[in-house]
Structures are given as C-alpha cells and as structure tokens.
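Hi W., the S-adenosylmethionine complex you wanted:
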Amino acid sequence: MVDLREYYNKLYSEGKEKYWNDYSDSNQTLSGSRQFIIDLVKRKNLNPSSILDFGCGEGNFLNYFSKKANKIRVGIDFSSVAIEKAKSFYPKINFILGSEDKIEGTYDFVTSIGVIEHTDDPALHFKKLYIATNRKGHLFIVCPNHCNTRGIIWQTLSLLFDFPIFIG
Ligand SMILES: C[S@@+](CC[C@H](N)C(=O)[O-])C[C@H]1O[C@@H](n2cnc3c(N)ncnc32)[C@H](O)[C@@H]1O
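Structure:
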C-alpha cells in the first residue's frame, strides 16, 4: 500500500492523472461509468444531501457531481499530493487524507471510482463503503473490466513484459 501511495503521489505530481481524469467544465460527457452515475442521478431525480467520494484524487468528480455548497461533500484519498491539490482547487469541499479508516458517519451517495482494484483487501473496502451508505442511499463501486480485447492484450503484455497500465 505504501508503494501504491508513493506511485500515486508521483503520478499526481507529474500531472499524469490526465490518463484517467476527463473532468472539465467544457466536457459535455465524462467517461462511461462517471457519466452513467451523473445520468442516473438525473433520470431518477435523486437529490442526495450528503456525498462521499472515496479515492477522490484531485476532487474533480465530487465537484462535477455537485457544486451545491449546501450539500455535505467529503472526499478521501491516501495521496497527499492529490489531497493538497483538491483542497486548493475546491476549498468548499471537505477533503481528508487517508484510507478506509478515515470514513466517519453515513452518506446518501457513496462513490468509489477506479479504486477497489488497487486495494489490499477489496472485501473490506466494500464493507466499509456499504456501512457508510445510508439505508436508502446509493453506493457505486466502479472498477475496470479487463475481460475484453483491450484488457486481454494489456494483461498479456503486462504479464510477459511488465507493460505499464499508463504509457508516458
Ligand atoms: C485511478 S485513481 C481514480 C481517482 C478518482 N476516483 C477518479 O475517478 O478520477 C485511484 C485513486 O484512488 C486512490 N487510492 C487507491 N487506493 C486507496 C486507498 N486504499 N485508500 C485511499 N485512496 C486510495 C489513489 O490515490 C487515486 O487517487
């Protein structure tokens, strides 16, 4: 976990979060799962008053999801570089440095996008987020599906040549 944290600190310091980060106010759509969540909220007319984004990175999804200051918005991430950037970009959102043990209370809406596949204990990750979700709330845990042509090619290259998931 320490290695992974350092790895993410390095990525955020070098600005390489752009490989998975596609948030900008000029974007009309986000990548699949993120846009799916936004669309679902609109379609079901959901109006969560509290939101937790675990593994929030620089806080862009939390900000994109809701710009309303009257909502409780909490982001948690174990990368100090990401959390420092998040705090400077979005001072009205509550960003917390840490991991699952930093989760306190319950929320109407809990998201974990591209995080569970990195955790040492995915079952614990799920349990902690489930417990943090209000009874009638929503929990979204999103992870990549490598059971497709792109995934199989990457996994093969990764196993044979230690090919990185990001190039650059
Ligand atoms: C692929 S990035 C996704 C960032 C963000 N969720 C998004 O959709 O843009 C994964 C994020 O999870 C964080 N992360 C990974 N494992 C974590 C853990 N055990 N506790 C807290 N944060 C973690 C990393 O620091 C990184 O910011």
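The first helix runs from residue 2 to 13.

W.
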